[in-house]
Amino acid sequence: MKTGPVAALLGLLLLVLTACSGSSEAGERGGEGETPAGAESVDIAIAPGDGATDVATSGALEVTAEHGTLTEVTVTDAEGAAVPGELSGDGTSWRPGEHLANGTDYTVTATGENAGGEEQTRSAAFTTTAADATFTSNWNIADGATVGAGMVLSMTFDTPIEDMAAVRDAVRISAEPHVDVRGHWFGNQRLDFRPEEYWAAGTEVTVSFRVRGVEGAPGVYGTLYEDVTFTVGRSQVTTVDAAAMTMEVVRDGESLRTIPVTTGAPGTPTWNGKMVITEKHEETRMDGSTVGFGGEYDIPDVPHAMRLSTSGTFIHGNYWASGSTFGSENVSHGCVGLQDTQGANDSSTPGSWFYENSMIGDVVEVINSDDDVIAPDNGINGWNMAWAEWGAGQ
Question: Which PANTHER family did the record assign (predicted)?
Answer without folding.
Answer: L,D-TRANSPEPTIDASE, L,D-TRANSPEPTIDASE YCIB-RELATED
